[in-house]
Amino acid sequence: MQPSQTLAQGWQRPFFQMWIGQALSLLGSQLVQFALVWYLTRETGSATVLATATLVALLPNILLGPLAGSLVDRGVRKRIMILADGSIALATLVLAGLFATGLAEIWHIYVLMAVRSLGQSFHSPAFSASTSLMVPKEHLPRIQGVNQVLNGGLSVVAAPLGAFLLEFLPTQGLLAIDVVTAAIAILMVLPLRIPQPVQDAASAASKPSFWADFREGFAYVTTWPGLMLLLGMSMLINLLFSPAISLFPLLVTKHFQQGAAEFGWLQGAWGLGIVLGGALLGVWGGFKRRIYTAQSGLVGLGLALVLLGLLPPSGFIFGVGFVLLAGLMLPLSNGSFWAVMQATVDPARQGRVFSLVISLASAMAPLGLLLAGPLVDTYGVPLWYQVAGSLCALMGVLGFLIPAVRDLEKGRPQTLPQSEVI
User: Fold this and answer.
1) Which of 298, 329, 275, 305 is nearest to 384 (CA)?
2) How far apart are CA 420 and CA 254, in angstroms?
3) CATH number of the domain encompassing residue 152
4) What gap in Å lies between CA 220 and CA 213, rounded to an integer?
5) In angstroms, how far is CA 210 from the centroid of its own chain?
6) Which pLDDT tens digit goes with each residue over 243-301?
7) Are both 296 and 195 inside the same structural domain?
8) Segments forming the whole domain that contains residue 11
9) Total number of domains constituting the chain
10) List of residues 6+ apart from 346 with CB closer than 8 A
């Protein structure tokens, strides 16, 4: 779908009105996440409780995400975003009431985390799919850069802001902030006219069932070799990369023999790198072929991790630099990857495709952590960075060499079989 002249000239105001509301809602969500994790840590001190909370927050999105994507493609995306934000806000309001009355239990927190995850499984693909219809294709990489700046900025400020607010507010007060930000997001979306994808004539006439829609979306991905390769690369990156971030504390304490202050420096460098990389992508927009920007970022990210893993214990200051570089490369790769997806995937199928990508990539994070634990305990923390970085860089190089990936932006090859119901 090519953007109309009207879209090309007047897309900024409606899109950024929606984006600002969602940014505020995301800030509220980050504050809630911090408050709940801190409460569980303070009240129980149990690693099992924290691990269970993490699992509860991941599973609904992983298991139900692809089904949610089918509903996104069948429904009105504006309405889905409003319902998702509203449901999350209502659940948060109930939990705030339980805290205020002293009735909150651990299982109540688990339920809220599950509801939030379920809501996000609808909201994320609906927002991403709406973005591709509201923003001209040539500006999608810059918008993804802005998104990366937001995510990186929140990773830097959310925890200290949450800690500061908890000095003056009870837990229910912090939860109430999320309800307010969600309400603002809903009010900012309500007056907007968010376009819907144009359905092809065959689909409109046949009115396929929900399950037929789901299977057709799955077939659309599996019969497109370039998209399948990109999905496989995304899964492998998450498998390797999630443990790399989680292992920062052990890298600082066990390898570099440093303390909490140095860990803070490393975390700060990571967040700052993401902000700078997102800003760079937002201003520059990347190469004309977005996939080249994504693969170049992946090569740079891999090399930064390899160099981090090769440092001696005395090289902490260089480690901060390499973490900053890795953070800078991540938005170039991740943001460009999503821009490619938004520009090439059929808008009528984006809900299903995006939710499938998010679910499968998210499923790799806990698997990667399970794999990394024994290996790091046996061979040390640096080895994981060396292996993960080498494989990331190799995938980036292969992306330049494999025609199906390199030519992904040309669209789905006409010689491929149509994604019929299987």
Assistant:
1) 305
2) 53
3) 1.20.1250.20
4) 10
5) 26
6) 888 788 889 888 999 987 888 788 888 888 999 999 999 999 999 899 999 999 999 99
7) no
8) 5-138+147-206
9) 2
10) 197, 220, 412
